[in-house]
Amino acid sequence: MKTVLYGGAFDPVHAGHVFVGHEALRLMAPSILILIPTGLPNPDFDKCLSASDADRMAMLQLAFARVPDVTISDFELSREPRPSYFVDTLEGLRPSLGVDKPVLLLGEDQLYSFPQWHRYQDILDQVELWFVPRAGRHCSDTPEVPARALFAINPFDSLSSTLIRNRLQQGLSVDGLVPASVAAYIAEHGLYRGQ
């Protein structure tokens, strides 16, 4: 059975994330999907989180509640506050991953910056790298980062967590862009408003 590791800020999780999760499970069957919300972001990438760890975990649980063979790992969230380096996460998860090489699933934009990841070559030695294509990106041809596309065309190509947050800040609807249960959670907890 293939283990697929799919990490990200999930700030918030959206319909594109859910679609990718479903497709990974379908195309790599039989497999299990481990979702890994980012802990403290690597400062090299100038990224910050808007929602709390607890809110991001809750939204992931709601979004994937009815999807079998999905686990949400709080590994990066439960570590002491320090930048999240995936090589450390991989080392920590190793005992639970079995003997086969796991798949690390990235967005193509992340694949583009992958050579800047901390000890990226050590990660490559331990995983099969797959990516979700993005329009206008062609970094899959980068010889130093061998990776396979999960599929040819991404129907959620223009959807991002940044877009969701921006719409919410402007008081616009996100219906259809996030699972209904996630939209309800965001509204109930007043997330991403006025930031």
From TrEMBL:
<comment type="similarity">
    <text>Belongs to the NadD family.</text>
</comment>
<keyword id="KW-0067">ATP-binding</keyword>
<keyword id="KW-0520">NAD</keyword>
<protein>
    <recommendedName>
        <fullName>Probable nicotinate-nucleotide adenylyltransferase</fullName>
        <ecNumber>2.7.7.18</ecNumber>
    </recommendedName>
</protein>
<dbReference type="InterPro" id="IPR014729">
    <property type="entry name" value="Rossmann-like_a/b/a_fold"/>
</dbReference>
<keyword id="KW-0808">Transferase</keyword>
<dbReference type="GO" id="GO:0004515">
    <property type="term" value="F:nicotinate-nucleotide adenylyltransferase activity"/>
</dbReference>
<feature type="domain" description="Cytidyltransferase-like">
    <location>
        <begin position="5"/>
        <end position="167"/>
    </location>
</feature>
<dbReference type="Pfam" id="PF01467">
    <property type="entry name" value="CTP_transf_like"/>
</dbReference>
<keyword id="KW-0547">Nucleotide-binding</keyword>
<keyword id="KW-0662">Pyridine nucleotide biosynthesis</keyword>
<comment type="function">
    <text>Catalyzes the reversible adenylation of nicotinate mononucleotide (NaMN) to nicotinic acid adenine dinucleotide (NaAD).</text>
</comment>
<dbReference type="InterPro" id="IPR005248">
    <property type="entry name" value="NadD/NMNAT"/>
</dbReference>
<dbReference type="GO" id="GO:0005524">
    <property type="term" value="F:ATP binding"/>
</dbReference>
<dbReference type="InterPro" id="IPR004821">
    <property type="entry name" value="Cyt_trans-like"/>
</dbReference>
<comment type="pathway">
    <text>Cofactor biosynthesis; NAD(+) biosynthesis; deamido-NAD(+) from nicotinate D-ribonucleotide: step 1/1.</text>
</comment>
<keyword id="KW-0548">Nucleotidyltransferase</keyword>
<dbReference type="GO" id="GO:0009435">
    <property type="term" value="P:NAD+ biosynthetic process"/>
</dbReference>
